[in-house]
Design brief:
Aspartate Aminotransferase, domain 2; about 35% helix; about 375 residues; globular; single chain; alpha/beta; Aspartate Aminotransferase, domain 1; about 15% strand; aminotransferase; seven-stranded mixed beta sheet; transaminase activity
């Protein structure tokens, strides 16, 4: 049995349906559920006595996330979701900093910035959803200071070339903020090689880590220049911390590493469950996951051509992602539902989220139902 078949067997969702809705949210594994039961049982039996071991494990998981993106542990913060992370960045930069982002991007990329008074300019994608680097460069103005984009566009599935985007930002002196929620950990990302200043990834999709967990990389160089606006008791240091005595806690200094984005007590259970999911990712290997998913993408395209189904996400290989779109009719989608194939369908577009637990038989099931 291959490692892909073994991991698939750990996901009970396939006992109920053919699952292609990872772009909306991934299922969790049996081992994840067992870990959750273990953690909650320990807390029920030990109360706060679990904290020393949990604190140490949180730092192990921080180091694990850092390894996956080529960062150091001190550059990684835990987040609950992308919106929370992006919101924590507003107020960090002067309002004179103009933001450039994508019109086709998820609202998280622009809503908080508009609300906080930044000028936000939007890049309109090409008709097929592609957004070439040259098109982005055309929209840069003398006031543009921050570029925000999703590594993989949630609607079209277009995958940006992060090395080329990073080189563009370096050329124009821009701060680069990347949302990798639709690509982490399917695609390899090296934050240093790509000149990424901030990388945000919510892990309830492709990492299959459940809701309310994720990570944010923030470069040390950026933290030396800018300080977040939101402070709590946990992301500052005190001259003489001793919460058993009354003293002047009005004197504090914001932390100097990425934990400055963690203002309160960690979401221990969520983080520890993220660690359980990431151990699976480390076992599979991100490079192998990427290669495997791309074999399924190629197979999907082959079968679509064979069955006369139009592929709407037919980008060049370097821009292809695990989000694939097919043009089908409402009647065809009804047949998919009748065959218990779960995927998003809107405006005659079927969006297929392919992950490491899918296989060619899943893809065959789509076309068998469509015919």
């Amino acid at each position: 049995m291959s490692k892909w078949e073994k991991i698939r067997a750990d996901f009970p969702v396939f006992n109920n349906c053919t699952y292609f809705f990872t772009n909306g949210g991934g299922p969790v594994s049996k081992s994840y559920v067992a870990k959750a039961q273990e953690l909650l049982t320990a807390q029920s039996e030990l109360g706060r006595g679990v904290i020393p071991a949990w604190d140490a494990e949180v730092e192990n998981i921080r180091a694990m996330l850092a390894r996956t993106v080529g960062a150091t542990p001190s550059e990684i913060a835990f987040i609950t979701n992308t919106a929370q992370a992006m919101g924590s960045l507003t107020g960090m930069f002067p309002k004179t900093f103009e933001i450039l982002t994508m019109k086709d991007d998820f609202p998280t990329s622009f809503v908080p910035w508009i609300h906080h008074g930044h000028t936000v300019r939007l890049v309109e994608p090409e008709k097929n959803g592609a957004i070439p680097v040259s098109l982005i460069e055309q929209h840069i103005t003398p006031n543009t200071r921050i570029l925000i984009l999703s590594h993989v566009m949630f609607r079209s599935g277009y995958r940006h070339n992060l090395e080329a985007i990073g080189a563009l930002c370096k050329k124009h002196g821009l701060i680069l903020i990347v949302d990798a929620t639709q690509s982490y950990p399917i695609n390899e990302i090296d934050v240093k090689a790509c000149h990424i200043d901030i990388l945000i990834f919510h892990t309830y999709k492709w990492a299959a880590a459940g809701y309310c967990s994720g990570g944010m990389y923030v470069s040390r160089q950026l933290l030396e220049k800018y300080t977040p606006a939101t402070m709590g008791w946990y992301n500052v240091t005190y001259p003489n911390p001793d919460f058993d005595t009354t003293q002047d806690y009005t004197q504090f200094t914001p932390k100097k590493d990425a934990t400055v984005f963690e203002p309160g007590t960690p979401a221990f259970v969520n983080i520890l469950l993220l660690g359980e999911a990431m151990r699976t990712i480390e076992t599979l290997g991100i490079a192998d996951i990427n290669a495997y998913v791309h074999t399924l993408i190629s197979y999907l395209h082959e079968q679509a051509a064979k069955h006369g189904i139009e592929v709407l996400s037919n980008f060049e290989p370097q821009h292809a992602s695990a989000i694939q779109r097919l043009k089908i009719t409402p009647e065809q989608f009804l047949r998919l539902e009748q065959h218990k194939i779960m995927a998003r369908y809107k405006n005659n577009m079927l969006t297929i989220g392919i992950n490491f637990y899918n296989n060619k038989a899943d893809i065959d099931a789509i076309f068998a139902a469509l015919q």
